[in-house]
Amino acid sequence: MTTNEQQDEQQEAKSYFSRNLLEWYHGQKRDLPWRRHRNPYYIWISEIMLQQTRVDTVIPYFNRFIERFPTVESLADAPEEDVLKCWEGLGYYSRARNLQHAAKQVKEEYGGQVPNDRDAVFGLKGVGPYTAGAILSIAFNRPEPAVDGNVMRVLSRYFLIEDDIAKGPTRVKMERLAAELIPEGEASHFNQALMELGALICTPKSPRCLPCPVMEHCSARLAGCETSLPVKTKAKPPRPEERLAALIEGRGGHAGRVLIRQRPSSGLLARMWELPHWPAPPAEGGASAALLPETAAQDRLRRSLLQAGIFARPEGHWMAAEHTFSHIVWTLQVYRCREEEAPALPLAAEGRALYSAAAGNGAASADAAATGAAPGATAGLADPGSASAPGPADPAAAADYAAASAAGAGDRSATSEGMYNAGLTASVPADLFADGSGPVERFADGSGTAEDAGAVRWINRSDMANYAFPNVFLKLLNAYFDEQEGGAV
Ligand code: SF4
Prior knowledge:
Cofactor: [4Fe-4S] cluster
CATH class of the largest domain: Alpha Beta
Radius of gyration: 27 Å
Helix content: 40-55%
Family: Belongs to the Nth/MutY family.
EC number: 3.2.2.31
Bound molecules: iron/sulfur cluster
Largest sheet: 4 strands, mixed
Region (Disordered): 374-394
Domain HhH-GPD: 49-200
Distance between the termini: 67 Å
Shape: elongated
């Protein structure tokens, strides 16, 4: 075959692909909520949610999200806690934060309208080449390619491309090819058709070639190698990390509640709420922490709790749970712990006062949510150094707080945990910190510092509605409250 004939054949394969795919899409496309409108805001939200997440999972989240934040402005102006709460369970929370950041950009720079402009859309936070292409093509019918893993799989197979799709130059090549395939005036439907084919027919493990609308000219199918494409080098597996977690059950005034803490304001799962947890020391020979002797794990956990200024005694292993990030997998060994009376410590008055105030603030936090205030803003615990932070709500604690403040006790610029630690270190055995594991160890995953961490709350089940939790803690808390209520774990 001459070069010209080869080029003609290639051109015919491209035209056939575009024509048949569009025709198939018009007859087979799924009725998805974001497809019922050409609202660029809805399309943008759906594309961000669909990253790493299945369509079936996204649908209820999408519906709730646009009901709660129907416009760019409403998203831009919402408290971040509300946005995270709406995202709770979807994972990859930086997507939600970036989305809100970008909504502010759209509100301030483009009058609340998603811009119909390539550079402007590319400039929005969290919007990469795929999402930009999807917004520009689907919402504005601009002939921009939208190439993600699904699309690269389809193109690799149909055109028998054996380049590694994990490599940047392959993506660029695919984008060029995908742009060439867009029929004039049909960018919106064509890009959605390509995504739909990858999702419904040309699936990763078992492509359904028989009903495939482009089967006749698919090079991989003709060569019988469709399941060995695309070529993709494996990403490094996430690093496993064993952690000891404390499910602290309240007593006395906190009966029926458990203690949660807020993560630092930057880094992994920033500002979300969780059960306190710390890296586990390796068991003998570097084995899993699951193999640590029970008493050794509990001793270590108690020590970490004390260092954090939390008075609680581990009472036994409750369950194990996993949380997977792209680069790390936490295995949490969760211990049930019993709240203990805070000892009278000479320097800890202010810290204890704040701790007590936080302890009683489940209801206060619910009030805060009702009035739209951030949960952490109520008790003065989240930011005791702030001029706007109110003092503790508890009268006895308030007296302690006032006395401590008047005496200038503690470091007012540190968190309450820091202050509590200051008191604690004055009276606990010196060898407690001898291994160098100071409070910073609490965030040894590199996700923030002790200085901006540490608000704690005692919550019951209904208080959970006021805080955003990563999936694993949501599941653990629900399992615990189910167990308390006699339901299934
Ligand atoms: S024929 Fe098979 S391998 Fe080729 S595009 Fe269709 S489903 Fe994918």
